Amino acid sequence: MEQHEHVIERYERAWILFGLAMITVFIILIGYMMLTMGNTNPVSAARIDATKVRTEGDFANPRVEQVGNEYVAYVQAFSFGYLPMEMKFKAGQKVTFYITSPDVQHGFKVENTNINVQVIPGEVAKVSYTFKKPGEYNLICNEYCGIGHANMVSKIVVEP
Amino acid sequence: MAVKTFPKIDVYAGAPEKKYTLFMLMLGFIALMVGTLFGPLQAFNYGGLDLYPFLKPVFQSYYQGLTIHGVLNAIIFTQLFGQAIMVYLPAKELGLRPNMTLAWVSFWMALIGLLIAALPLLGNAASVLYTFYPPLKAHWAFYVGAALFVLSSYVSIYLVLEMWSRWKKANPGKITPLATYMSVTFWLMWFLASLGLVVEALFLIAWSLGLVAGVDPLLMRTLFWYTGHPIVYFWLLPAYTLAYVTLPKLAGGKLVSDPLSRLVFLLFLLFSVPVGFHHQFADPGIAPYWKMIHTILTMMVAVPSLITAFTIAASLEVAGRANGGKGLLGWIGALPWNNPTVLAFLLGFLAFIPGGAGGIVNASFNLNQNIHNTVWIPGHFHLQVGTLVTMAAMGTAFWLIPHLTGKPLVARGMALASQWLWFLGMFIMTFALHWMGFLYAVPRRSHIAGSPIAMEAYRESSAWMVLNIVSGVILLIAAILFFYVIYATALQSRRDPDRVMSEVPFSEVISKPEGSSLALLTERIWFWFGIAVVLVVLAYGPVLFQMFTNMNPVPGQRLW
To answer: What is the number of other CB atoms lying within 10 angstroms of the CB of residue B424?
Structure first.
């Protein structure tokens, strides 16, 4: 019986060390990938009065602007749609989205990309991305925003 | 003719805590039953099949059903189960009786809170989902009822700490028995973790009553997830406790290591709370380095679960070999698979393994971008709370209800079938949801079956959608079998106290706490609680301070 206990305790220690090593490797990989593979995590660009989004400032006029070789898009995510209704970009050119909401929380997820933003009233989210493949991408609201939430699907067109 | 009267046996006369435990448990299962009946409707929705129009006069929308499903299953049932198990186990282990007056106070607070919150839920005045993100604004009664319900758990915290200190006084210098240790750390963790929800509730109640014009949605999200991730450990730890202190015995073996089991609960106390930002990786308004810190701390919470995987597997191996299992894997077949309680835990843990791996993905700052708010997420947590936590509760009910009432379990075959079907149904459903979310970006909590636009957008995932319908049917059958078994057991008139388990099946242990330096180290619970508080202050303090001093209130909306 003594022998049996001893063996289990040895395996136990090995397993805990293995677990810690695995976690450490994961953390290093996450950091490494974020530094080298393009970080698409949204950040805050500004705070804003949600009740004035529709009437004042950049978001009262939702649009895509071409600035040199890049795009800047000012997007309103509202119940239940996006403005501008359709966005067109050229493949290979960087797009910087500024997104906010005039009402409740929304999602801003572009399928087949790493763009996935929690749109929070009062916050302007900023995220940059370069579409490489031409085509039509679904733009999806993935945060419950009321009874019409499921209809809140739009299109992003990327031209070659 | 003389009327012959049988002497009525009062089974609770000598053990009033049994009655309290039974009431908490059964109230929890009633909540689970109502919530679970809406489950297949959600599954059918993700199969493109919309049954809500048929419920129209009573239930207004998918989102109302989803709110009921989430609130009852994830808040009401889980807390009531914790309040039943994590008070009863230490009471039995220490041989002490909790303060019964306060125990019933906690029961009535929970029941009245539940009823107050249920009215707006049933009236479609609170279809704000389980996360109730402002500025979607529910009826004030929803927030008041939920707050009263959560506060009932604070009475349970007191009950256990009071029993523990009574035992400590009577046994100076002794190491706290294992189940009690787990219960004490569990309740202290919950006390620390629930503060976010309590503060959020104060804001929401004032807002819904019109006392303040708006609330800051980012601050509310942050307070919600401050509690919202540790709450999953609040659900999980009663299942772990039962797996440590009862499962080895029920399977015919022994718990491998007592000191290591304590370490697991201590690590949960330390690392459960400062992790909530990993639900907010996609949020603007929180600096990336804070998100990275929470990534690292979240990864640390995987460690106690990895240790648990080892200890439970090793304890089961001891059981399998004691039952005559031979060879490398022969012990698995020798486990008592025909014991419905053991079966529930075995299948629950089996599903928990891929669920844990998925959890690592969710907690990884950058991988999360792919799956945030897609159906991957409900796929993930149905593998966790939907299998291990729920199955531990269902499996435990199979011995606990007979133990509490003196009534033997009826329809054992149905009990076994319910667990196999539940496991199968959850496995199929979560498999489909993971891939639908990951490959096709299908959003979570979306009434896609009622929207031709959505069905068109996600048509490529239709093969996976079919699996949701299949699983919904299987899970419905499993639920019917399970609830039949427990209600038929509890409501039968036959009492057979000799045939049911009279003692709680506490496991014996191989490596004992006495003489272990690790056990002595973990025993300094208040010291470790202080460390946990410091960790939370470091991981949340600066961000919360900034949010509280820069509030940006937004008025409420009712959009359902």
So the answer is: 16
